[in-house]
TrEMBL record, chain A:
Lineage: Bacteria, Pseudomonadati, Pseudomonadota, Alphaproteobacteria, Rhodobacterales
Name of the protein: CidA/LrgA family protein
Transmembrane segments: 25-42, 54-73, 85-108
Principal subcellular localization: membrane
Pfam families hit by this protein: LrgA (PF03788)
Organism: Thetidibacter halocola
InterPro entries assigned to the protein according to its UniProt record, in alphabetical order: LrgA/CidA (IPR005538)
Subcellular location: Cell membrane
TrEMBL record, chain B:
UniProt-recorded name of the protein: LrgB family protein
Topology of this chain in the membrane: Multi-pass membrane protein
Keyword Transmembrane among UniProt keywords: yes
Domain of life assignment: Bacteria
Organism ancestry: Bacteria, Pseudomonadati, Pseudomonadota, Alphaproteobacteria, Rhodobacterales
Amino acid sequence: MLGAIGLLLACQLVGEVVTRGAGLPVPGPVAGLALLIVILRLRPGLAARIRPTVTVILANLSLLFVPAGVGVIGNLDALSAHGPALIVVLVVSTLLAMLAAVGTFIGVRRLTERPAP
Amino acid sequence: MTDVAQLWSYLSATPLLWLTATVLAYVLADALARRLGNPPWANPVLMSVCLIAPVLWITATDYATYFEGAQFIHFLLGPATVALALPLVDNLDTIRRSVAPILLALLAGSVVAVCSAILLALALGLPEAVILSLSPKSTTAPVALGVSEAVGGIPTLTAVLVILTGIIGAVTVTPLMTLLRVRDWRARGFAVGVAAHGIGTARAFQVNQTAGAYAGIGMALNALLTSLIVPLIVRWLV
């Protein structure tokens, strides 16, 4: 378990150093994710060793968003002033984004899996 | 007998109290969601916030004090993002076969998420600082905060809008996809990952492992794309 946590933290650290050092617009953890993909491809045996820890983390991903979510109490002014409008924007925009993504995914998949003669 | 006021002043000065409260609230919320069979509306993040926020309000605890304890959990968002590499590698063969749908759906979902939020907010007459704070709402929290700051938004407001977006996506994805009769777990997962980041991804993992892996891909790719396109779109629309 500690080995897995060490590996995740090390990937994030390298990701932060590289992106900040090079001034890339990519977030550090996302660069760390890309690095871990490369490491897992080079050393496939590592996957089995980090799997138990990673499974626990991803199964409880929701917990990690609770502290930011509680931040709602610090923004009650902005939220109560514009609450209804903000909720409309968030709901409509999120539904539109999901529709655009799922429609494009299925449309392109059909085109590429069964190319027109 | 222990002086209650003295005990409280000790507890409220250490990170222990609010760290424990956050974990316990989540354990309770997650157990309740499981017992109910993980229905879309019983979102663990939403339920945990609804348990903690009133306690903070009653005890007159400000967010900065709460966050001293909760930061240890918040910090884990970074390593958890890195951990998404494992389901990605597990699904690399199927991902290779759907590169074109993934990249085009990413572009469509990401651009629609940013543009629709800005245009709707403009139409409803929201102030500029709020519109800028809204623009990166579909991407994962650590990325959205950086983007918000860069374009002139309010990062703490962005954090809340990002979480609300995640909850909205997680609550609506199952009914929406069922209504549209979408049975492809890859498409369902990918869409919710692009539109509703990690909270949507957590929901996808609750429903189906393939959907979860594709949601993780959508979230990771959208973290990249949003940080690139928001500054351009903001300059063009706002």
